[in-house]
């Protein structure tokens, strides 16, 4: 296997309060994650991504940070974080944290100081006498806000915020702010984190006459940040959270001198569209619209995460289609997206859940799994904001779900109760014991992915298909080639694989004949033409010598 660690890693996303409660107060914590490392190692993930665990009034799930170098008391202490890092590293696992730098909480001491008249920190945030500046910047939380400006009585001025009014934007034009942010990055990397997810990174700077996203100043700052990280640390990773069209996302990788990774937002909605349209045109379009990326950078692929399934960057027509198909109850909509988890979105259809995982794990990039999706956990979309997809992890059957020793009525959020998704039906314990469970199947796929090696860094080639329901591509490196064939339609399709699996001239066998192929999952031999059942996918490899 080649490449830097993050090019081949499987990531696992954890909201700290949701995973496991170690001290019986009904709130998951850092020590709870440490206590569950056995499970994560058994599952076969390589890197944990911890959502913000800093002190926070929790208006935005912890993305409203009131102390950038502290730990929220409910989650534990810095020593707990050190212990988690140590235990994970001992097992060969890595851990990344969220780095929220675009904004702080309005309770952060910097903001409290900034709003005081005559304050030395006045210029640390973005103030204005009128709410009229930067009219071309869109509002992101459209369900709750109609302006990016809010009046502050103490300051006697309006302040700028791209998210909730409780999240004032820092002023990156101020060199002191930039230096303070770099210090925070340094703090967490020194503590031992292997990387940082840079939250809301397109919005750092504001300029009149622009939409205030992806500005050249933002990229200049990211290059400075990257240089600082490279100068002081080895093998760390910066991940861009930029929900932008392909050409803008790729800019966050710079010439290999900005972030090491960026989420591949543009390919996510097409994966869901394909299942309903029963053709792969949208996926193929998204792949073709994806520019090449610099060496040693990598895409972060995901199906779902702790936010709504975002539809901000798709066309009006696709957005309406997605709402129609995936948000039959209008209350499932949130901002410009859908606040549901993977399994309920896919009507708990095992074939669909496995199919999307088959693609998530084999398309170019490093996959990000969202906690609980490996079980097929459900959601409670009527909960506030995006809380419905952040409910307690279901470890065991029964009323506590094995999440905590506290009274479930006092949990930070209720356990999913929707029939079919309740903790008696969906839980780690039962699924671990059942060889046919989704959990065991995902674990097998992760294991095969690791052994194949080629999905992380191998080349990618799209193969033409006669039938629009079929997505066919290969992933190859010097030693092997894997053909991926997926049928997004609800009917059986004959797929010719011989042409794609000819011995490659110059690579050992140059006979140009159909090579000996087996299914990577079942190990069964595969003929030159196969029947791909409804919603079926296959990973096909050359039989090992
Ligand atoms: C992106 C995060 O994923 C989301 O949860 C948060 O609300 C915004 N950034 C603001 O920090
Ligand atoms: Ca706790």
Jot down its keywords:
TIM Barrel, alpha/beta, 3 domains, binds 1-deoxynojirimycin, 545 residues, 16% strand, Immunoglobulin-like, Oligo-1,6-glucosidase, domain 2, binds calcium ion, six-stranded antiparallel beta sheet, eight-stranded parallel β-barrel
| Order of strands across the main sheet | 1-2-3-7-8-9-10-13
**For the residues shown, what is the average pLDDT?**
96
Q: What would you say the CATH architecture of the largest domain is?
A: Alpha-Beta Barrel
Count of helical stretches: 17
Distance between the termini: 18 Å
The CATH homologous superfamily of the largest domain is named Glycosidases
What level of helicity do the residues show?
A: 25-40%
Tell me which oligomeric state these chains represent: single chain
Listed once per kind, the bound small molecules are:
1-deoxynojirimycin, calcium ion
Overall morphology: globular
Determine and state the CATH class of the largest domain: Alpha Beta
| Total count of domains | 3
């Amino acid at each position: 296997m080649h490449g830097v660690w993050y090019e081949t890693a499987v990531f696992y996303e954890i909201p700290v309060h949701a995973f496991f409660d170690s001290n019986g107060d009904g709130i998951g914590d850092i020590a709870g994650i440490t206590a569950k490392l056995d499970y994560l190692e058994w599952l076969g993930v390589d890197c944990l991504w911890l959502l913000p665990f800093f002190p926070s009034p929790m208006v935005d799930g912890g993305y409203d940070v009131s102390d950038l170098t502290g730990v929220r008391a409910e989650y534990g202490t810095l020593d707990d974080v050190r212990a988690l890092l140590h235990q994970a590293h001992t097992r060969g696992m890595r851990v990344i944290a969220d780095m929220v730098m675009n904004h702080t909480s309005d309770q952060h001491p910097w903001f409290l100081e900034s709003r005081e008249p005559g304050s030395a920190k006045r210029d640390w945030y973005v103030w204005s006498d009128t709410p009229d500046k930067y009219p071309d910047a869109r509002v992101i939380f459209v369900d709750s806000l109609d302006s990016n400006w809010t009046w502050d009585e103490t300051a006697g001025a309006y302040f700028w915020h791209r998210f909730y009014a409780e999240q004032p934007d820092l002023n990156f034009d101020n060199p002191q702010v930039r230096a303070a942010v770099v210090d925070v990055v340094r703090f967490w990397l020194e503590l031992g984190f292997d990387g940082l997810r840079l939250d809301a990174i397109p919005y750092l700077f504001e300029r009149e006459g622009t939409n205030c996203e992806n500005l050249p100043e933002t990229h200049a700052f990211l290059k400075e940040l990257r240089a600082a990280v490279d100068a002081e640390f080895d093998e760390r990773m910066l991940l861009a959270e930029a929900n932008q069209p392909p050409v803008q996302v790729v800019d966050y990788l710079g010439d290999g001198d900005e972030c090491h990774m960026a989420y591949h937002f543009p390919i996510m909605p097409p994966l869901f569209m394909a299942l309903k349209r029963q053709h792969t045109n949208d996926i193929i379009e998204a792949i073709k619209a994806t520019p090449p990326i610099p060496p040693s950078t990598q895409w972060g692929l995901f199906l779902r995460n702790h936010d709504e399934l975002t539809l901000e960057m798709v066309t009006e027509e696709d957005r309406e289609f997605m709402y129609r198909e995936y948000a039959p109850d209008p209350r499932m909509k949130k901002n410009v997206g859908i606040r549901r988890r993977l399994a309920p979105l896919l009507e708990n259809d095992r074939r669909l859940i496995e199919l999307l995982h088959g693609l998530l794990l084999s398309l170019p990039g490093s996959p990000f799994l969202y906690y609980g999706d490996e079980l097929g956990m459900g959601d409670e979309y009527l909960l506030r904001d995006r809380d419905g997809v952040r409910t307690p992890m279901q470890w065991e059957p029964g009323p506590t779900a094995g999440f905590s020793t506290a009274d479930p009525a006092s949990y930070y959020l209720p356990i999913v109760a929707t029939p079919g998704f309740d903790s008696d039906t969906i839980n780690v314990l039962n699924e671990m014991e059942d060889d046919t469970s989704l959990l065991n199947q995902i674990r097998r796929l992760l294991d095969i992915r690791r052994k194949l090696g080629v999905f992380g860094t191998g080349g990618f080639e799209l193969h033409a298909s006669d039938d629009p329901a079929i997505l066919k591509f290969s992933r190859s490196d010097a030693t092997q080639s894997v053909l991926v064939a997926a049928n997004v339609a609800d009917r059986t399709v004959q797929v010719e694989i011989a042409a794609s699996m000819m011995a490659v001239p110059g690579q050992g066998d140059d006979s140009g004949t159909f090579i000996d192929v087996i299914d990577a999952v079942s190990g069964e031999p595969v003929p030159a033409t196969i029947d791909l059942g409804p919603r079926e996918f296959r990973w096909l490899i050359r039989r090992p010598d």
